[in-house]
Design goal:
Blueprint (H helix, E strand, L loop, with lengths): L17 H4 L5 H13 L6 H26 L2 E4 L3 E6 L5 E6 L3 E8 L1 H6 L1 E8 L7 E9 H11 L13 E4 L16 H16 L8 H12 L2 H28 L3 E4 L4 E6 L4 E7 L3 E9 H5 L2 E8 L5 H7 L1 E7 H12 L17 H28 L3 H27 L1 E5 L2 E6 L3 E8 L3 E7 L2 H6 L1 E8 L5 E8 L3 H8 L5 H6 L1
Antiparallel strand pairs: 1-2, 2-3, 4-5, 4-10, 5-6, 7-8, 8-9, 9-10, 11-12, 11-16, 12-13, 14-15, 15-16, 17-18, 18-19
Helix pairs in contact: 2-3, 12-13
């Protein structure tokens, strides 16, 4: 490909190797058959031959369909628009003005890297639902970078007065990897995946002799030794898995202002990703501090930006910083906002009513302590008296834990107005700190449950055409919420306040 734009810009096709990418779906079933053959000593049952026949037919059909789809897919970049023509039975031509394109994402999976290809996703606003995306799978690496340059060519580039580099990976940050959900959750997910693979091969894992012997040995040993040993093993395996996942997701990470208009975040080891976000579409930042990470002085950061796709895509593409020291997260978020320092570093937050504390304590008691205690009491009365003792021990331990967590959640709760931003903080298991541009707020929603109304509390939700599209200021005093909404985004509630 020599040119992309011009008075008579040519139509281009994705690389023919795209067909090989679509054959990647063959790996799981072929791998399952290989494991079955190994488990049965090379003897493939009749069901295996049926599967092979079905795979052969599916391969022929999908390859033929992919060839037709590839031959009917063309893209074009003119001086002012990006066009994609696709479809087999139903032909579709989609054209997006270049000034509506807000981000360009380059993603490279291991299979794409093996074939020398890249997936290009261009996020754009549209006149319909306000969001849109054009995806091309797949282009050569050279063509993908040229296409991204062409799509972002209309940037109003100005020289940067600040350091354009927000952050780069620091190997010392690896110490935060075990302080994430994947330490325990990752082991459960891995076990579930292994179980599904064996179940798909017709092997009942719980009936395997090795597994039965292991559980028998575990039950016959001293539980005060085996239970801590098992817990230590799970944590060790989870930590190794979390470390590997951290390296895979964040290897080669950098967040750089490539010019005065675009922020580019690159990361990934096996699957690499380069997400480019237009500066004008960044409407805030979110500092996230999960409980364990917060205890170690760490945090993660993401941007609140429009044009990143649906909710799931937005969560993946908005990442601005991996788990890292909190001071580093504050510095990076300030750089994303183009402010000298993060507002939360110096602005005191307004506390919420004490009723919010009582509400959090009651939630913990009603939805955790009481149900579990009642269940243990019922089981103790019906099955084993020892569970009666477990019930009062659980209640005795859980009640103060709930009180401590409620206190922490209440201390985290707060809001403030600081210049062009609305500052909001909430949460205990994950304390989230949000700086949101006030001009980006399009609407307000006031919501309250029966219990909250009785306590005189209201949750205020800001509708924003960016990020997760809704951000909440939880448990405000009911008589203070309208004033906060009016002060944050003047004009939205004026008509209603005047009628009052």
């Amino acid at each position: 490909m020599t040119t992309l734009t011009g008075a008579a810009a040519a139509w281009h096709r994705p690389d023919p190797r795209t067909l090989l990418v679509h054959c990647g779906w063959l790996a799981p079933p072929l791998g399952s058959l290989a494991l079955t053959a190994l488990a049965t000593g090379g003897r493939i049952p009749a069901s295996g031959w049926i599967t092979l026949a079905a795979l052969a037919v599916s391969f022929a059909v999908i390859t033929a369909t992919g060839l037709i789809r590839w031959s009917r897919t063309h893209y074009q970049v003119t001086a002012d628009s990006f066009a994609l023509r696709s479809g087999v039975l139903n032909r579709r031509l989609r054209t997006v003005p270049l000034h509506r394109i807000r981000s360009v994402d380059l993603t490279v999976t291991p299979l794409h890297r093996l074939l020398g290809l890249t997936v290009v996703r261009a996020g754009a606003t549209t006149s319909g639902d306000g969001r849109g995306e054009i995806a091309l799978d797949a282009l050569t690496v050279r063509d993908a970078h040229r296409l991204r340059t062409a799509l972002l060519a209309r940037a109003d580039v100005r020289a940067l007065a600040e350091d354009p580099v927000l952050a780069r990976i620091d190997l010392r940050w690896l110490r935060y990897a075990p302080l994430t959900f994947w330490v325990i959750g990752g082991v459960g997910i891995a076990f579930g995946s292994v179980y599904r693979v064996f179940d798909g091969m017709g092997i009942e894992l719980w009936r395997v002799g090795l597994v039965q012997d292991a559980f028998a040995e575990f039950g016959n040993s001293a539980l005060w030794l085996t239970v801590p040993a098992a817990l230590f093993t799970v944590i060790a395996l989870g930590s190794i898995g979390a470390l590997a996942l951290y390296v895979e997701n964040w290897w080669g990470f950098s967040a750089v202002w490539t010019d005065a208009r675009t922020l580019t975040v690159r990361r990934g080891l096996l699957t690499t990703r380069a997400v480019t976000v237009e500066r004008a579409r960044i409407h805030g930042v979110l500092l996230r501090e999960p409980l364990l990470l917060r205890a170690a002085g760490g945090a993660t950061a993401s941007v609140v930006a429009g044009g990143l796709g649906d909710k799931e895509e937005t969560r993946r593409r908005s990442a601005l910083l991996p788990p890292a020291p909190r001071d580093e997260a504050l510095r990076v978020t300030a750089g994303a906002l183009r402010t000298p320092q993060h507002p939360f570093a110096s602005v005191p937050l307004t506390a919420h009513p004490r009723a919010a504390l009582r509400r959090r304590m009651m939630r913990g008691l009603l939805f955790l302590v009481l149900p579990v205690t009642a269940a243990l009491l019922a089981l103790g009365a019906l099955l084993a008296p020892v569970l009666l003792h477990c019930a009062w021990i659980f209640a005795l331990v859980a009640a103060p834990v709930v009180w401590l967590l409620a206190r922490d959640a209440y201390r985290s709760l707060g809001h403030a107005l600081h210049g062009p931003h609305l500052l909001v903080r909430a949460g205990t298991f994950s304390r989230d700190t949000l700086a949101l541009e006030r001009d980006a707020i399009a609407a307000w929603t006031f919501s309250s449950s029966p219990f909250a109304r009785r306590a005189g509390l209201v949750t205020l939700t800001a509708a924003v055409a960016a990020g997760e599209h809704a951000y909440r200021v939880r448990d405000l005093a009911a008589d203070e919420a309208p004033a906060l909404a009016a002060a944050t985004a003047p004009g939205i509630l004026d008509e209603f306040l005047q009628k009052r």
